[in-house]
Design a protein that fits this description.
By secondary structure, the chain is an all-alpha fold. It is 81% helix and 0% strand.
């Protein structure tokens, strides 16, 4: 169970490392509006992730532990989504272009928080992502306290990594490091997502 938990949290962190919509939202907030605005944005994104996880855990709590058709359908949706975005990450051939920092235009923490919360909350892919992650842990018979601990851990990782990311991108050395390694990060994220997606799909097939 510990190995599976580590796989899940590693996949979650790899997804944070691979630049996506939240990454570019934070980048714009940090470089255009300043660190205070970016920190608020990071807090809003973290809260949106927490709310998505709570929604997923609430939905899982009303499903029978023994499974059932709807639970198998959720597993297939989550697993299929993991396989799809994992394949997209493995096949990606993108170059990451980061803009130069602009002068602080007086952004505020509250504005950044609202911006991050709304942007992430309106992303329909977020709950699907967590359905897959928590589906893996539920299949492994992770107890309720373990699921809550996982939720707290992933929320904290989102918050503190996003805050650290904005600061790192303010240094040319780290910006260059990320630009040089974005393809490797995509491959890592894709491989982990494919592994989890395959695990879910095999679990459903064995349960049929």
């Amino acid at each position: 169970m510990l190995a599976l938990f580590l796989l899940v949290v590693s996949t979650h962190f790899a997804a944070l490392l691979s630049p996506g919509p939240d990454f570019f939202l934070l980048l714009r907030a940090g470089l255009v509006k300043g660190l205070r605005h970016a920190d608020g944005c990071a807090a809003g994104i973290a809260l949106a992730n927490l709310l998505s996880m709570l929604l997923v855990l609430l939905a899982l709590s009303v499903l029978p532990v023994s499974g059932g058709f709807f639970w198998q359908l959720l597993q297939l949706v989550g697993g299929g989504y993991f396989v799809w975005i994992g394949g997209q990450a493995l096949l990606a051939r993108r170059e990451l272009v980061l803009p130069d920092a602009e002068a602080d235009r007086g952004g505020s923490w509250r504005q950044g928080f609202t911006e991050g919360l709304l942007a992430s909350s309106l992303n329909p892919k977020l709950p699907i992502f967590y359905v897959g992650l928590f589906g893996v842990l539920r299949n492994a018979a992770m107890p309720g306290w373990g699921l809550v601990m996982s939720m707290g851990w992933m929320t904290a990782v989102v918050l503190f990594w996003d805050m650290a990311l904005v600061r790192l991108l303010g240094h040319p050395r780290w910006r260059g490091w990320l630009q040089m390694r974005v393809k490797a990060l995509d491959r890592l994220c894709g491989a982990l997502l494919l592994a989890l997606g395959g695990w879910l799909a095999v679990g459903v097939m064995l349960g049929l």
